[in-house]
């Protein structure tokens, strides 16, 4: 065979391979789109059945049968979609339907996955389908997004804060939800701290043991310097009487910690606001902003609030003047007098 024949045959073979590859790609795309269309249609149909069942208990048997017969992926997606639209009253019925489709068991198997996004999806499914305190093990997951999702699970089930023990992976000691939630409040990950604060604010009664442990952790030298900010701002959001001491945080070297401590003291012991305002009137800007924000809670701090309304920093002046406006007729009159004097 001559060289030109060899080149021709090789070219034809290469062209055939390219054509077959392109055909396979086109057919694969078509099949995926067709399958995806059928799956979306199945999800819509099943979601309609589930919503009807949640609206009226007489459709519950039909929904249980339909979700049991559906493909696992379809059943899981419908549970996630329904979980975003149901209220507290319907959540128990949705959990019952999810249990009928073994959503819980498959999600718990996914919790052992090496991939954090699979564990995250499993937590979201358990948020819809599970009330088992054993599932609190995900509060100790190494990935912050998974831990934050687990905290949202806990926020809808505050009674689990008293459950013990929590089964953690091998070679790690069992810990209850209180300890894990306190760890989350002083976490390095902002997403985890925000979720933990949401749990604490939503819990009734307020989880004082969690806050006390979080502040204890924040006092440890190995903890990052701003660890106390999240538990202190949580206490400020809760308000009321909290039998905890914040004196060491008021004297912290970190200005954000001092500011958070001022807010916490003003929320729990407003009679001390005037004293705090005098002590921190010349502090750093973020601290003066906190003082200006809370000074209206104590009438004795009125003169100090006027001084802050003339602060060199624009942000401090604005916060102080808003506080004067919120203080009522007397505060607004003082603000008008100040504005006239400046003019």
UniProtKB/TrEMBL annotation:
This chain's source organism reads: Egicoccus halophilus
Keyword Transmembrane helix among record annotations = yes
Q: Which UniProt keywords apply?
A: Membrane, Transmembrane, Transmembrane helix
> Which residue ranges run through the membrane?
6-30
Indicate what this protein is called per its UniProt record: HEAT repeat
Under the heading InterPro entries, the entry gives: ARM-type_fold (IPR016024)
Look up the domain of life of the source.
Answer: Bacteria
